Amino acid sequence: MRRGLAAGNWKMNGTAASLGEVEVLKTAHPAPAVDILICPPATLLERLSSVASGSAIATGGQDCHPEKAGAHTGDIAAGMIADAGGSHAIVGHSERRADHHETDAIVRAKAEAALAAGLVAVICLGESLDQRESDQTLDVIGAQLAGSLPDGLTGANAVIAYEPIWAIGTGKIPTIEQITEVHDFIRAELVARFGAEGEAIRVLYGGSVKPSNAAEIFAVANVDGALVGGASLKAEDFSPIIAAL
Ligand code: PEP
C-alpha cells in the first residue's frame, strides 16, 4: 500500500513572509495520514526546514546539480540541500527542461546525484500539447522514463511526477481517462524495470491541481498524490488538497 504524498513546488515564489503558510499547515495537519513535502526556493530552504522541523512536513530543493561541488555559479549540489535540512530534490521539472535545456541524460545524472546525497529524487516527466494532440503521449513518457530514471530506484528513494506540460499553470487538466491511462502505463513500466519496487514507487499527478479537482484526481488507482505549483503557495489552498488525499 503506497502512502499518499502531497508535494508543493513553490518555484520562484516566496520570501520570509511565506513561512507563515507553513506554520498554518503545521497546525492544520499535526498527524496527517499522508506525507507532505514543500520545495521552496533555495533561499528559503534552511529557514523553512527549521519552521517545519518536528512536524510532518518534509522539505526539499527544486533542482540539484549532477556534481557534488565545483565551479558552477548559481547551482546547488544535492548535498547542500541535505545540509539545509531538505530530504527531497525535484529533478527534471518541465520548466527546467525547457529553460535550462535539460535532457533526459542530465535529469538522470541529477537524480543519481540526489540519491548519492541520500535524498529522495522526485523525477518529473510529461508531454507537450503537440505531443498529446499527435497521439505521442505514451511514446514520449516511455522515452522519458527510460532516459531519466537511474537504476536502483525504490519506493524509498524515488517518486515520479507525471506533469503534462500543457496542464502546468494553465487551469487545464487532462480527463480522468487520460490521467488513468498515463499512470497505469507508468506503473507498468516501473514494475517491468524495478520489479516489486516498481509497485512501491509513488506516482504523482501534477498540473493545475486545486481544491476543487483534487479528490477526483486522487480517486484514480495509480495516482498516489500530487505535485502542486500555484495552489501550494497558500495554506488555504494546499490544506484542502492534503485533506483530499
Ligand atoms: C508544477 O509546476 O509542478 C505544477 C504542477 O504547477 P501548477 O500546479 O501551478 O499547475
Automatic annotation (TrEMBL):
One example GO MF annotation: isomerase activity
Catalytic activity reads: L-erythrulose 1-phosphate = D-erythrulose 4-phosphate; D-glyceraldehyde 3-phosphate = dihydroxyacetone phosphate
Query: What's its EC?
Result: 5.3.1.1
Catalytic residues (positions): 93 (electrophile), 163 (proton acceptor)
* Subcellular locations according to the entry: Cytoplasm
Q: Which residues bind substrate?
A: 9-11, 169, 208, 229-230
Its predominant location is cytoplasm
Instruction: State the pathway, as annotated in the record.
Output: Carbohydrate biosynthesis; gluconeogenesis; Carbohydrate degradation; glycolysis; D-glyceraldehyde 3-phosphate from glycerone phosphate: step 1/1; Carbohydrate metabolism; erythritol degradation
Q: Keywords assigned by UniProt?
A: Cytoplasm, Gluconeogenesis, Glycolysis, Isomerase
Instruction: Look at the named UniProt entry and state the broad enzyme category this protein falls under.
Output: isomerase
Q: Which InterPro entries match?
A: Aldolase_TIM, TIM_sf, TrioseP_Isoase_bac/euk, Triosephosphate_isomerase, Triosephosphate_isomerase_AS
Which CDD domains does the entry link to?
Answer: TIM
Say what the protein does: Involved in the gluconeogenesis. Catalyzes stereospecifically the conversion of dihydroxyacetone phosphate (DHAP) to D-glyceraldehyde-3-phosphate (G3P).
Q: Which family does it belong to?
A: Belongs to the triosephosphate isomerase family.
Q: How does it assemble?
A: Homodimer.
Identify this protein by name.
Triosephosphate isomerase
Source organism per UniProt: Sinisalibacter lacisalsi
Q: Which gene encodes it?
A: cbbJ
